[in-house]
Amino acid sequence: MLDKGQIKDWDGGPEKPVAATVPVAGVAGVLSGAGEGVPTGERVTLTDAQVSARKRRGQWIALALFAFVILIFVLTMAKVGGNIANWGTAFE
To answer: Can you tell me the distance from the alpha carbon of 77 to that of 88, in angstroms, rounded to the nearest whole number?
Structure first.
């Protein structure tokens, strides 16, 4: 909690509570919402099939990301390698 001396022009009164906003459903809620979740107390329990599907999907995403990084590396080295052949003539 802040003291009166910590904030300039503070009258010392209590802070006003922030009103809870009602989430808007659909696309309008996504575009205009604050992006905060509303706690409902509900929990989701995944089945074994859902857990294995999530794991498999994560592995494929990791593999695709790794392949993309390798592709970018190979393309970069090919472009740099082409310029190394002309290294001596570039400064003449």
So the answer is: 18
Q: Average pLDDT by consecutive 10-residue portion of the chain (92 residues)?
A: 59 63 64 66 87 96 98 91 67 59
The pair of structure tokens assigned to 64 is 């695709």
Residue extents of the structural domains in the chain: 47-85
Q: Which of 8, 35, 12 is nearest to 23 (CA)?
A: 35
* Amino acid found at 41: G
Contacts of 2 (CB under 8 A, 6+ apart): 10
- Name the residue among 7, 1, 46, 38 with its Cα closest to residue 21: 38
Asked whether the CA dihedral 12, 14, 3, 6 is positive or negative, the reply is negative
